UniProtKB/TrEMBL annotation:
Keyword Transmembrane: yes
Name this polypeptide is given: Transport permease protein
Keyword list, A-Z: Antibiotic resistance, Cell membrane, Membrane, Transmembrane, Transmembrane helix, Transport
Stretches assigned to the ABC transmembrane type-2 domain: 27-260
Transmembrane regions listed in the UniProt entry: 25-47, 67-89, 110-136, 148-170, 182-199, 235-253
PANTHER family in UniProt: NODULATION PROTEIN J
Organism this protein belongs to: Streptomyces katsurahamanus
Subcellular location: Cell membrane; Membrane
Database matches in InterPro entries: ABC2_TM, ABC2_TM_bact-type, ABC_2_transport, Nod_factor_ABC_transporter
Pfam families found in the cross-reference section: ABC2_membrane (PF01061)
Keyword check for Membrane: yes
Protein family: Belongs to the ABC-2 integral membrane protein family.
Membrane topology, record value: Multi-pass membrane protein
Length: 263
């Protein structure tokens, strides 16, 4: 490397590169937004009345909208991790990362650009999904402070899942494999949580798993903040999960990135 490296400058350059890619190839970004919106409309207008009766809402579809929106918001965050894993894997497979490593840039900026760009896109997607939820009847009793707290929880969760997705992208040889490997984050864990029905309605070990997995804790925190109800210990648990998964994802991604450079 013939010139000094400036991590902040290089990270900003990589961030701009990833945002330009997202603007030029919007299909993946649109897919991130479209899938949660489709699931929201499906559960509200097809299953809403029946599920509302099951959670004590008396068959009122509006009651079920208030219940399901926090889970849909978290599903949006999970869906965004798919595009991150695919983008990282594609960069590795196409050799652009190998070229970056020969340049006078901070090596950490390559991953940081992906992470920050993904979090920004995720937050924009969350705004769009929230707009659709409000349009179909979602109403919140939250104060401005509670809305900010909910946004902070979502941003932290997005950061955690993005770092995990980066690790998945680095660990898989093809974009298809990376997309499949991230499926638990984007699909399975949200459905096996309190996103759509209370965990009390689930049988046996599924109930135990759903109650203690991190997505349920985050969803219950969001539900409490957005409806103005008590969140109890869920808020601290959500913060703990977010910080812990962020650190785990970062360390794993860094290890995968360093291993790939030695091959």
């Amino acid at each position: 490397m013939s010139a000094p490296s400036y991590p902040l400058r290089d990270s900003a350059t990589m961030l701009r590169r990833n945002l330009l890619h997202a603007r030029r190839y919007p299909s993946m970004t649109l897919g991130v937004v479209a899938m949660p919106i489709i699931i929201l409309l499906l559960f509200v207008y097809v299953f809403g009345s029946s599920l509302s009766a099951g959670i004590g809402g008396g068959g009122d579809r509006a009651a079920y909208i208030a219940y399901v929106v926090p889970g849909i918001l978290l599903m949006t965050v999970g869906s965004a991790s798919t595009s991150t894993a695919v983008a990282v894997c594609t960069d590795m497979a196409e050799g652009i990362v190998a070229r970056f490593r020969t340049m006078a840039i901070s090596r950490s900026s390559i991953l940081i650009g992906h992470v920050i760009g993904s979090v920004i896109q995720t937050m924009i997607s969350l705004v769009l999904v929230t707009g659709v939820a409000l349009a179909i009847g979602f109403r919140s009793n939250a104060t401005a402070v509670e809305w900010v707290a909910a946004a902070g929880i979502l941003a932290l969760t997005a950061l955690a899942l993005t770092w995990l997705a980066v690790g998945i992208g680095l660990a898989n040889p093809t974009a298809e494999a990376a997309s499949n490997a991230v499926l638990p984050l984007s699909f399975l864990l949200p459905f096996m949580s309190s996103a759509f029905v209370p965990v009390e309605s689930m049988p046996g070990w599924i109930r135990w798993f759903a109650e203690y997995q991190p997505f349920t804790t985050v969803i219950e925190t969001l539900r409490g903040l957005l409806t103005g109800s008590e969140i109890g210990a869920d808020g601290w648990l959500a913060l703990g999960w977010g910080v812990g998964l962020t650190v785990l994802g970062y360390l794993w991604s860094r290890n995968q990135f360093n291993r790939s450079s030695s091959r």
